[in-house]
Structures are given as C-alpha cells and as structure tokens.
Amino acid sequence: MSISTPAPAPHTALAADLITDARETADPAAGGPGQRGDVSELTYDSTVPRALVHRHSIAEVFVTDSVQTGEDRFAVAAQLPRGHLIGERSPLYDFTLLVEVVRQAGVLAAHRHLDVPLASAFIFRDLALRTTGFEPLRIGPRPADLVVTVEVRPKRNRAGRIQGFGFTGGIAVDGRPALVGEGGLLILSTAAYRVLRGKRQVPDHPGFLLPRFTATDPAHVGRRDTRNVFITDPVSEGEPGTFSAQLVVDTTHPHVFDHPLDHVPGHLQMEAARQLAVASVARLHGIDPGTLTIASIATTFTDYTELDRITRLQATAHGFRWDEQLGTCTVPVTVEALQEGRTTTALRLEVAQWT
Q1: Of 153, 223, 292, 296, which sits with the fewest C-beta atoms within 10 Å of its C-beta?
Q2: What is the C-alpha to C-alpha distance for residues 216 and 229, in angstroms, rounded to an integer?
Q3: Tens-digit pLDDT profile for residues 171-220
Q4: For residue 265, which of 90, 88, 15 has the smallest C-alpha distance?
Q5: What pLDDT digit, counting tens, does each position of 131-178 carry?
Q6: Rounded distance, CA 26 to CA 9, Å?
Q7: Within 13 Å, how many C-alpha atoms sit on residue 271's CB side?
Q8: Where are the beta strands (DSSP E) in 209-291?
Q9: Which runs of E-coded beta strand occur in the chain?
Q10: Cβ–Cβ contacts within 10 Å for residue 350, how many?
C-alpha cells in the first residue's frame, strides 16, 4: 500500500515527544467520529477515560469533554487543578500544565473524532504557544474551566488513514482568551513505532552509567520544589547572556514520567528550557527569577533526545522588548538541547515579568 507521508528515518525522527504508548486493547469509549455541536454543550463533570489521552494516572487527566464544531474543528473542555506537583504554589496556572492540556486535547480529538486507533503513537514535530494575557491565567477561588479550540489539517494516506495533522487553536480560561498556538504531529501504529525506534544506534555507554547530575537551587529557576528542577546550575559561556546547563532527568517524576518512556519527553525538555531561560534572564538583567514567566515558546523537535545520553542545554538571552499585547517587557531567549554535539531540539522563548 502506498503511503503519502513515509515514516521518518531514525536520524530525522520528528519527535522528542509528548509521545506515549497507547493502549493495545480497544476501548469502547473511543467511539467513532463525534456528533456536531457547539462549545455550550461541553461538560466538566468528569474527566475522559485515561486511555483516550494516553495517561496511566487518572490524576494526570485534565480534559473532560469534546465536541466537533465544524469540518475539522473541535472544542475540548479541561479543568486544571489549583494545586499540582508541577504547578506548586504559583499564582498563575503553570505553563507546563497548559502544554499538557494542549497535548491531551489533540490526542482526544484524534481518537474520538478522527477515528485514529488507540494503539497509535503521536510524535510531535513542532509546537508553539503564545500567552495573550496573564490575568486569565491567575488562579482564583475556584477551579477554572478551560476550552481548547482546535482546527486540524489532516494528512491521510490513500486508504484514508490519518498519518498526522497540523493544527491551530487557542485556550480560553473561564471564557477569557489566554493562549494561542499551532503545531504539527505524526501518527504511527505502535508496531511501526517499535520498528522505528528499534533501528536507533545504541550508544557505547548504557544509561545507568550516566553521571548523576545535581539539580540547581529551585529559586534560581523560579521553582520552589526540588523535584521540579530539571537542570544543573547554569554556567556562563563567556559571551554576555549565554549560559549552559546539563539536563537532570528523574524517571520517577509522577507527572513527567506518568509511565515508562524510551526517550526524554518533549514537555520535560520544554520545562528545562523554560528554567534555563528564566535563570539566564535573571542573571543577565538582575531580576528575581520568581517574578519571571513565559510569554511564548516555539519548539522544533528535530530528533529524539535519548535517555541514555547526556543532554546539554545552551541558552542565549537578549535585551528587553516591549510587548504591546501583554503590556510588559519581554526578553527573547534561544535554547538548544544537544547530545554528543548534535542539536535534537531547538526552542525560542520569550520571558516576561508578571506582577
């Protein structure tokens, strides 16, 4: 059977992740394409079955409902906890949790409305999110109701099977626009994914022989809990605004590693990049890291970031820019994840100071 978009070769695997191995068994809750409706029909009474968003822990499922609102357009309801291991005690909903909501919304729409089998692997090629307002993200006296709107551009083979899609959309929090985003992903059967990953070159050193890096002080990266720090203490590279750190991977972390993975997940890399960006801006411009947050992030996954190789992160922070929409100054930061001198993930962030 001819396939319009061939599966990527190992050296160009467009991933890093947000991949999770889907359930091997069928789940009747997956159903077929959903009925047309509108956003007002969304409910927040309970979360969807965990298999539909590729999570093992029920506590890590945030989406509650979905509806198809038009041709290749969907709305997904979600509710974020006001207290979470990753969210800590921040006054704003955590950016990493918002990334996870976007991931879950895309996976749910694919399974429930686009007939993508549960036994599929989702490989993100790129993901970009931009904050349009900080005030809607402020945690209030009750859990916020989120609506993720998604418009997809499916890519199908000759048999009609979806092999991936690009998407654009946004997140509203309690009816107020908060973020906009876009991205693209590939979809493989679990059998194809195993073949893909089975061809990778195994390094000479097994994972358990990697150095055990020590995470930096949480306060240096705008965190409070040591468990949520994923980089070593940043080191100046000589040029103003240029810093590097090693990635600290804790495969027992209950949110990042909800279940075993065969690579460093994308949202871990994005959070580590956020931490290095915050530390770099704080040191370059003399700002309290605890007052810094992310205004935007754009990530391109050019290859898998492997668990059994040392990952070095390198960041370059620049000068202040005025963001008219947010009404505050932002600092652009570029970050690269490198393994054995090769870039596996490239990220562009904007760091902002909120009040």
Answers
A1: 153
A2: 7
A3: 999 999 999 999 999 999 989 998 988 877 655 555 556 888 999 999 99
A4: 15
A5: 999 999 999 999 999 999 999 999 999 888 999 999 999 999 999 999
A6: 28
A7: 28
A8: 235-236, 242-246
A9: 63-70, 73-79, 120-131, 145-156, 162-173, 176-189, 235-236, 242-246, 292-301, 312-317, 321-323, 328-339, 342-353
A10: 22
